[in-house]
Amino acid sequence: LKQRYGPFFWKEGLTPAQIDRLSDVLVRSRMNSYDLSEIHRTQGLAFSDPAMRAQRDRDKAEVEAGLRDVLGEAGYARLDDYRRSIEIREYVGKIAGATALEGVPINRDQADALVNALAATTPLFGRGGPAEFGRIDWKTAEAGAQSILSPAQMKVLREDRPVGGRSRNAEAAQRAIGRATGELMSAGMLGNKPAR
Hints:
Blueprint: H1 2-12, H2 16-43, H3 50-84, H4 86-101, H5 108-120, H6 138-145, H7 151-160, E1 162-163, E2 166-167, H8 168-186
Antiparallel strand pairs: 1-2
Helix pairs in contact: 2-3, 4-5, 5-6
């Protein structure tokens, strides 16, 4: 949880006690989802079954009340935005790592601004839905990112920008893995043939 929500905890300036309380509520949320999945699996109830929907609604209300208790209304709204943009945040975290390796690290303010710029280009985020990574309007996103990132940082972003749903670096890595696998298979070191 601290890895996924740490930036939110830091930005909100939460105390260790608040982080613990918030973590407890978030863990309870995951446990509630797991419990519903187990009921579905063991009892065969459909997720659309009225009893399942009622339990899901009770669980959601309990979790939301716990989150609001710790964060207040404004903090809860910020957490909701944070959670809706989690896919984009994970991508920006990857870009932050790549820029650091290139010697041009982005700072937290830049990372937050980049998340907001990318999320704003997705069709559902502005209407209260999730910011889906695969639905980023990259032309608009790059234009917004240019006012946030340095030219060297933009170069890293462009090099990792997805093509056909996957990043260019992931495509290159997949091709390299494919070549290495083929070479190992040809050498009899991989597959059903015993290595000699």
